[in-house]
Amino acid sequence: MEAQHLPLETSVFIAPVRSAWIRLLQFSRKSNHDGISSTWTFTGRLQDFELSEAPPFYTASYVWGENLHDQSTTTTTTIALESGTLPVLSSLTPFLNMVCAHTDFSAKDWWWIDSLCINLKDTQEREDQVKIMGSIYQRAKRVIIWLGEEREPDSDCTGVTRFLSRLSSLPPEFRTNKALRTKLLEKKLDAQWRGVGRLLCRKWWTRVWTLQEYVLPPEARFYCGRHSISRGKFKSAMYNIHLCSTGSGDYSNELIPRHAFDAAFNRRRIHQWYQRYNGMGLVALMAYLGNQSATDARDMIYSVLGLINEQDRRLVGTAEYTSSVEHIYAKLVRSFWNEYQSLDIICFSHLFNPHSGNLNPPETGGGKAVPSWAPDWRARVEFSSPVPLMVSQSASEYIGNFRPLGSATFKAKYDAPGPNLKRKANVRFDDNLKEMWCDGVILDTVEGLGGLEDCQTRCRSHVCRDSGHEVVQSVRTGQEEGKRADASLAIVQRITRSLVLDRRDKYLRFHALEQYVSSFLVLCHACIANDGCVDNHGESVRPIDELFAVWWQQNKHVRIGLKTMEQHITTTIAASTNPSLFSQIPIPTLQPSYYFVPPSPKLPACDNPESEDQDSYLTRFHDTVRKKSRKLMVTSQDYIGMAPCRARLGDVVAVLFGCSIPLLMRRVGVREAWTIVGEAYVDGFMGGQVERMIANGDAEVVKLRIV
């Protein structure tokens, strides 16, 4: 339900609808002939019902459109009621015509259509109806999802619903028969695939209100023109499209634009979760909807109230549209803390912040900013991920993620402060919700940052667009006093873990495999050995992995301790006689001819491609560097980790006692205050180690003022 499109008149609404009641609409149309042409007019009636006693009714899910009603023309569509005329959104008129002409429906059907059944000019009525919106859709006998006419300007979807029905009905052996899947990629089907892409690019898929309209009703059916497909068949079709994916197990753009596929596939996943758990975590859901939008930014929260669990619904409270967007977003953080005694929600400012590509920062004339500790849910992320951040780990009790239902178990957990310090966070919020205080430890200062140029990252930040992703590091002279001289192997192991965030699966459920060190060394050595080499045809030797090769060329000179990363690698390879280190691969040599694809650990056979527990090292590397856009980070004490791509030298790594994940923070203002830049992985400090540092006198507890 969009907020800023209001009916032209409210006289048809004789009285406000009572709490826990709804208005239902019956409508029909008749033809009018003037001797020259014929037009259609709609007539109908509105009637109030107590929701629990309402007759069976349909709901409609559709896009409101940019233009409401054109008052300068006499062709505005209306429904004639006894109490007056009810204006109809221009985007809704084709839907009403379809319903009146289709044999699936009759004039006796009752409908609940938000723009026609709610007096949106009555703020109290609007808030009351939003409060019971979830119950309305749950009690509907079916939602009719209107995707538009088959042929619309620049969007010809002729025959798409029939093609999707065909995809949904593929035989079971399709899922294990690669040859059968390959047939669907034949050129003769290109037109059908383009049509599917156009359908999934229509605006309905990106409007946040349409999600609960799709998920909650017991039945749902998509209509494109007069043709339709059930929700169940559509979900099957989307999964079979997923199985047609090519490449390294990640969805490619060969069939459908990635953003279009994600929007539809993610709704399939959310519906699965809702059916299993009957309520999801608010923050995980809002992050998963990071590529969706709403006309009123407050609806990024309120539009999913019907989908979330009872505890999160309680912390949100009643939908209200009188407070500012900034206040509501900050209030959500405070409510989250009050409910769960956790600040994990603040990690989402890593992605949802004023520097996002679709927002204009306040300093450049953009809108008012939320505090750095409050995610700005107005920001859009181009690629929606079921596990967008470390705080989205499967072990998270209050955040969670949208991993496949078959991947419920986990054995690893990030908990930087540990359980004891979490009880000593001393969190406090200013009354105006502009500032927050929390006790914590500043681990160290960032002294070196790796590069991400040409690494195809998903970063869309204004900051990174202007400053780039180049390697930056402080100047060191000589062998500085007090510098740690760790063994190269230990440093290589820390780098290896950092580049995969110490996890072996993208759902962050299990610790990284020890064999990953071997794979990392093979990748590095192949880059070293093949640098400048040519094959028998005079062509440059192809790298094992293009992305890793690009990353290596930028980051090999990053200093860690007294050596560069490349020097640590060559030292480790030269001394590699430890059988446990190279038990999975041949012992590397330093000969330029040494070139082979690094073997991955033996993985158990898995029939369901959505429930894999382990990924190859390269897959995990891609997830961290490309998808999550993390930079290699080295601190002044040579702690190694991964930082947000918009990190700077001089930023600090801190462990807030109220937050499971270390944070990169930046000092601002004349009074000592801090802003949050984003999550930080710090190897060796992800599981409560700071408590021991405090006990040993190696770290000091400070109260951090965050603005």
TrEMBL record:
Domain Heterokaryon incompatibility span(s) in chain numbering: 59-213
A family per Pfam: HET
Residue stretches spanning the membrane: none
Entry-linked PANTHER family: ANKYRIN REPEAT DOMAIN-CONTAINING PROTEIN 39 HOMOLOG-RELATED (PTHR24148), HETEROKARYON INCOMPATIBILITY DOMAIN-CONTAINING PROTEIN (PTHR24148:SF64)
Entry protein name: Heterokaryon incompatibility domain-containing protein
